[in-house]
Structures are given as C-alpha cells and as structure tokens.
Backbone:
C-alpha cells in the first residue's frame, strides 16, 4: 500500500511536470503566440479592447447637442468626487423654468475609471472613451469641461 | 580534407606547447607561462560565455512567457547584456556599515574562483583539456561544494536577516543535494571503472552511456540534472535568493561589481553542471556513434568534437532554463522531502542496479 502511494506520487508528479514543460516548449517553438505589443511603434494600428476604459467623455451629435439633464446622479455616484456638475436655470419659450448644465467638470487626475458614473446616468449622457495617452506636463490640463461650448440638451431627453 | 581536419584545438595547443618549449628552456618557467596562457584563455572564453548565457536566458524566458525579451539595444537585443554590464561597472559597490568587511568582500571572490576552478578538468574537445587529472570527477564534486562556503560567508557577513536566512537555506539545500549528485556520478564511475574524465569520454566511443546503460543510467541522468539544478541554486530550487520572500537572499546587500560576480558565478556554474552532465551521460566531445555502423560513425566524425561538446552542453542548459521558466518554486520542506524521500532512496536502489549491470556486463 505504501509502495503503491509512493510510486503513484512519483508518476503523477512526473506527468504533471512534463505537461508543464510541454506547454512552455510549445510556446517556445511557436513565436506567433507572443502577446507583446510594441507600443510606440504600433501606435497607428494599436486597437484597444472594447471594455478598455480610458476616460469619461460626453458624446455630442452634429447639432452640438448632448443628452445630459444635469440630474447629478453621476456626481453622487462617484466615489472620489471626480465630477462636479454646475447647473443653471433656463427659461423655456413657454415660460417654464428648467434645470440645465452650465458645465460638466471632470478631473481625469482623480478618476479611478470605475465606471460607476456611466452606469448611474439615467439618460446615457456619458460614455467611456478608449483613449490612453493621457500624460501632460501640468496637472491642471487634466481638468476637463465635458460639454462643448454653446451646446445644449437634445430634444426629448428628460 | 586532411589539412582541414588537422586544424583543431588539440593541434593548436600542442603546437603552442612545442613552440614555447623551444623558446623557454627552464621547465618551471615554461609551466608558469603555460598556466598563465591557459588562465587567460579561460577568462577570454568565460566572459563571452556569460554574455551568451545571459542573453539566452532572457530570450528563452521571454518566449516561454509569450514575451519578446530584449530587442532594442543592438540587433535583436544582443547588446543589451553589454549595456547592463557597463551599468553594473559604473554602480557604486556599497558595503553595509555593520557588515564584516573582510568576509563581505571575500565572499564573491570565493564563489567565482570556485566556479572557475571546476572548469579545469572539463574536456572541451578531443585531447583538449586544461588538466586531465586521474581523479577528475572527484575533483569536480569536491571543489564545487566549496561554493556553499562562499554563499554562507556572504549571508553571514552582510548583517542582514534576509541574507542570513537565504544562506542557511542554501546550506541545507546544497548539503542534501550533493548526495544525489554524487550517487548519480558514481553510477557512471562504476560503469567506466575510472574517475578520469578522458577515460569516461573514451568509454562512450561505441555509444553514449545514456543509450548503453539502459534504464538505470537514464534514471541517474534525470536525478543528476534535477539535483544539480538544486545545487547551483537555480529556480525552481532558488530558495536561497527567493525574491518574493528574501529580497534577493544571500546577495541582498551586494551591488555593482560584487553583485555582478555572483551573477557571473551563477552562469559559470550553469555551464559547468551542464558540461558535466554532457560529459558523463552524453559522451562529452564524442560524436554520436552507433555500435559498429562504420560508415555512419565516420560521417559523424566529420563534425568537429568541440561542436559536439558545446551542442550537448547547450541542450542541457536549455533544459535547465526551461525548468526555471516552467516550474514554481518549492517550499523548504518540499525541497528537503524531494531529496530525502525521493531522490536519495531512488538513487541508492539505482546504484545497486547499476552495479549488478556492470558485474554481469549487461550493457552494450
Ligand atoms: S469612472 Fe468612477 S471615478 Fe471616474 S468619474 Fe466615473 S464614477 Fe468617478
Ligand atoms: S451625465 Fe447623466 S447622471 Fe450626470 S448629470 Fe448628466 S444626465 Fe445626470
């Protein structure tokens, strides 16, 4: 019984070690499998994965309209105060007052790219961009106003 | 063709010898001069060898981990290791304040000197050997175990808990694995009946021991490779320098050139161990011969013996490198279990089998 266990252990371990060596041997002889991206050289062709999160952006359509209602749900959802929504009161044609955004301030240097703001937005106004070259010489350049100047809210978004 | 074949390392060595002995009459001075030449040749061979091994290790590691490895400095990154050496030379060699300065500075020298001493009896090519002493195998095993003193010295004198732990582990490891290495070497000695390296190589003229010796010799070959990987402190047995636990182990406190010497010693040891495995089990410089197939054997003889030796050595180096980049590191208890519960009993039984085979003449 003891001997059976003893030799069983030896054969099992030799088998598993050989399995490992076959894997590395396969990788060694198949350079096509290499995953390395030679980054600065392949900048033109480098494509990020769909789920890659680069920075928060607010898409605008061709009439310079965005979908943000200024509800501040993203500001509340953000765990580290990256977003600051500055709102204003707009008077519509029919005389009603309506809340709108003055500025959507986003501090990229504070953002952990956790995606909470995107999922909490009720009107899908913000999305993650796939950009990745964010280095700047001065951190004030990382503070961004996401709504473009002169933009307004899209028709029909409440 | 004959002209071409005559240009070999052995003829080069003997012509240098005859030229020197005609120039220098005094036998003692002649000896000293020849020793100096041999030493310089060894250094000239070893430093590029370490560059090659360093480059090879990085490339092998990279390809096995689906990376590219060094590929910026020089064509395909070949000059990266030169750049690293220059960087190490310019670094400051710190000596910790509380350390034992004398031992601290002596340790890397001992480690390197020991690994170079072991090169002496290795047969690089046909009739080309620095020192063909009649106890060559014993010399290699005994000198190579001095290296542990250098490692213990480095760990003790650094005045650092990590270094000390690493050195202690390395001591336990080398002392135990020495046994298996010795026993598997003995199995070849039993077969050959000689401790002389040139005899061992010559005994494989009609087939390498790994083929002639059937299963028992194959088992001792495997045990030799495993145990000597442990003896030179390479992963998966690199407990003495386990980066994750010991921040470098016995060479934690070393920097600059003194660190480079440990690195140099590691690569020389790797080469020596592989060369020994090639000599004992794969026939050293002996070309691949099959029994009495004269024509086939003759064709194989056309490949120079130094190429055979280097080819076999690098094949084994590659296998040891593949160990390193495939297997996870063992724990201390697993390490000692492997030696005392598996390798040692198996090699003891194996020795008995080999002895029976040798007595009965059950080999080709
Ligand atoms: S991704 Fe996370 S951290 Fe960044 S702005 Fe959105 S909620 Fe804040
Ligand atoms: S981005 Fe979305 S969640 Fe944030 S204020 Fe605008 S509408 Fe509300």
Residues:
């Amino acid at each position: 019984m003891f001997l059976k266990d003893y030799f069983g252990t030896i054969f099992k371990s030799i088998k598993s070690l050989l399995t490992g060596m076959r894997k590395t041997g396969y990788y060694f002889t198949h350079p096509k499998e290499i995953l390395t991206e030679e980054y600065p050289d392949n900048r033109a062709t480098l494509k990020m994965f769909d789920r890659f999160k680069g920075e928060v952006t607010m898409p605008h359509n061709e009439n310079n309209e965005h979908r943000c209602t200024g509800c501040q749900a993203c500001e509340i959802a953000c765990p580290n105060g990256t977003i600051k929504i500055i709102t204003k009161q707009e008077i519509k044609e029919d005389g009603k007052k309506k809340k709108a955004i003055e500025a959507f301030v986003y501090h990229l240097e504070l953002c952990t790219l956790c995606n909470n703001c995107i999922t909490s937005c009720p009107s899908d106004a913000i999305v993650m961009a796939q950009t990745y070259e964010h280095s700047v010489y001065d951190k004030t350049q990382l503070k961004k106003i996401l709504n473009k100047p002169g933009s307004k809210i899209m028709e029909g978004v409440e | 063709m004959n002209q071409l074949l005559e240009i070999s390392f052995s003829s080069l060595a003997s012509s240098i010898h005859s030229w020197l002995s005609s120039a220098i009459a005094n036998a003692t001075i002649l000896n000293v001069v020849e020793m100096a030449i041999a030493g310089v040749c060894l250094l000239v061979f070893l430093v590029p060898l370490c560059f090659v091994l360093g480059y090879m290790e990085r490339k092998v590691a990279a390809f096995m981990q689906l990376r590219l490895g060094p590929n910026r400095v020089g064509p395909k990154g070949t000059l990266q290791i030169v750049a690293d050496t220059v960087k190490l030379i310019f670094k400051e060699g710190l000596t910790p304040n509380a350390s034992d300065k004398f031992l601290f500075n002596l340790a890397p020298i001992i480690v390197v000197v020991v690994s170079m001493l072991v090169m002496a009896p290795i047969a690089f090519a046909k009739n080309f050997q620095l020192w063909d002493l009649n106890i060559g195998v014993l010399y290699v095993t005994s000198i190579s175990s001095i290296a542990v003193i250098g490692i213990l010295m480095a760990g003790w004198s650094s005045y650092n808990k990590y270094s000390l732990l690493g050195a202690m582990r390395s001591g336990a490891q080398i002392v135990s694995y020495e046994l298996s290495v010795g026993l598997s070497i003995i199995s070849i000695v039993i077969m050959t009946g000689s401790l002389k390296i040139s005899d061992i190589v010559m005994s494989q003229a009609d087939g390498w021991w790994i083929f002639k010796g059937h299963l028992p010799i194959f088992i001792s070959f495997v045990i030799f490779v495993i145990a000597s990987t442990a003896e030179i402190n390479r992963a998966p047995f690199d407990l003495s320098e386990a980066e994750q636990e010991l921040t470098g182990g016995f060479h934690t406190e070393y920097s600059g050139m003194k660190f480079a010497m440990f690195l140099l010693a590691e690569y020389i040891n790797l080469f020596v161990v592989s060369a020994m495995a090639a000599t004992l089990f794969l026939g050293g410089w002996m070309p691949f011969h099959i029994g009495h197939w004269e024509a086939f054997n003759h064709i194989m003889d056309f490949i120079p013996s130094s190429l055979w030796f280097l080819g076999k050595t690098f094949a084994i180096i590659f296998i040891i490198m593949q160990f390193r980049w495939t297997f996870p590191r063992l724990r201390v208890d697993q390490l000692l279990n492997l030696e005392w519960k598996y390798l040692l009993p198996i090699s003891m039984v194996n020795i008995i089998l080999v002895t029976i085979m040798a007595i009965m003449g059950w080999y080709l």
